[in-house]
């Protein structure tokens, strides 16, 4: 796990360096090159991934993480403008708003995300919407990669086949959960906190499977945002097409790492 994160951080740092030098070169040249969109660096570094000890740090200490790739990196599945607006406006607003909410409910400041979500109904709705919105998007960005796609392997694939019968059946059930979520919300693959079984669910708004609002609580491995802001610029009303294309950018290494992590954290999560 440590190696995974070190590699992730080093790869991200190298990407940042590359983008910075490209951005500097672009800045030197006044006229933009025809047909070649400028590459924009994302300023912050990805120090918060919602994994490992991130689950147990106090919510007041969580930083707003960098996007682990450039805005156009998920094209053609998700267009540059959508990623930029989604990350830099929507996600950042959830972050800013939950930090503001801590000022009015200072007793929450020392709580971890894990503890807050598990008792979310005891706090003002702004926490449910904004701490949920903050964490859910950290997972979403991390669940995707410019080099995504393919299928899971190892222990996760074994568990998927054991639970759903086949990978294809898992995909079908996950897509159905995402397509049929009425209005705004998310579909999830999680590990049941009571039984350690995989399960698929969907939640409204910015709820997630860890919140004490859901019927079946789970540790989220994979989440797809089906709010219109996640896809409307490119797909308009064609939510099913966005969901089908999502698999092409899915970072199975991240999902698998979260699955392995669950079993290392499980004694602290119950
Ligand atoms: Mn969103």
Offer a quick outline of the entry:
The protein has 270 residues and is mainly alpha-helical.
Mind sketching the topology for me?
Blueprint: H1 2-28, H2 80-104, H3 113-118, H4 125-142, H5 154-164, H6 167-180, E1 185-192, E2 198-204, E3 218-225, H7 232-235, H8 239-246, H9 252-269
Antiparallel strand pairs: 1-2, 1-3
Helix pairs in contact: 2-4
This protein binds manganese (II) ion.
Contiguous helical run count: 9
Mean pLDDT: 85
Give the tally of β-strands: 3
Question: What is the end-to-end distance?
Answer: 21 Å
The CATH architecture designation of the domain at 154-269 is 3-Layer(bab) Sandwich
Proportion of residues in helical segments: 40-55%
Uncertain stretches: 1-41
Distinct compounds present: manganese (II) ion
Q: Which range does the strand content fall in?
A: 5-15%
Could you please describe the fold and organization of this structure?
- This protein has a three-stranded antiparallel β-sheet.
- By secondary structure, the protein is mainly α.
- The protein is globular.
- The N terminus is likely disordered.
- The two termini are 21 Å apart.
- It is built from nine helices and three strands.
- It has a domain of 116 residues: minor pseudopilin epsh fold (3-Layer(bab) Sandwich), CATH 3.55.40.20.
- Helix 2 runs antiparallel to helix 4.
- It binds manganese (II) ion (MN).
- Manganese (II) ion binds next to helix 2.
Keyword list:
three-stranded antiparallel beta sheet, binds manganese (II) ion, globular, minor pseudopilin epsh fold, 270 residues, 9 helices, disordered N terminus
